[in-house]
Design a protein that fits this description.
The protein is about 30% helix and about 35% strand. The chain is an alpha+beta fold. It is globular.
Length: about 170
């Protein structure tokens, strides 16, 4: 069997039994993909927000959470809070840049627009800023947030959405 240059990803809803794997994706993504932009201490503090797996599962359940899969296995996930905020967007480092994140953001955009949202916003890590900019998001403001005793910076980015049914 030949390897394909473009893996095919599929989307499905979050299931509570996905939680352990999603915490692994969350941690691996922070540890590897954000290494150039955040110190080790900052990355550990950031990743520690998944230490309470029950609370993490609740956060995912309380939001509209989608899973990107490859050959049936979760390789990324994204969640929509209050219909207009991308709260979480994480992919396994091994598939970063291959389209899973793009598929997730595109799906959340469509769902938000269908539910009447006029914009989509996200507090984006320095690592993910270029990704969001490529998808039409514009920087609004810089933020500093405290996680586990560490200060982390991010940027609030926003994208105006076309009304559902509008061309």
């Amino acid at each position: 069997m030949m390897a394909r240059a473009h893996p095919s990803f599929a989307l499905r809803p979050f299931l509570i039994e996905d939680t352990p794997l999603l915490t692994e994706i969350f941690r691996a993504s922070i540890e590897e993909l954000a290494a150039e932009d955040y110190s080790e201490a900052a990355r550990q503090a950031w990743a520690s927000s998944a230490d309470d797996e029950e609370a993490f599962a609740r956060r995912l359940s309380d939001q509209l959470t989608l899973i990107a899969t490859m050959n049936g296995s979760p390789v990324g996930f994204a969640s929509l809070a209050n219909n207009e905020t991308i709260d979480l967007l994480y992919v396994l480092p091994a598939v970063a840049g291959q389209g899973a994140g793009t598929m997730l953001v595109g799906a959340l955009e469509k769902l938000a627009a269908a539910r009447g949202a006029s914009r989509l916003k996200a507090d984006v890590s320095d690592t993910a800023q270029d990704f969001f900019a490529r998808h039409g998001f514009e920087a609004q403001q810089r933020n500093t947030v405290r996680r586990g005793g560490e200060w982390l910076t991010n940027t609030t980015m926003e994208k105006k959405l076309a009304k559902a049914g509008a061309p």
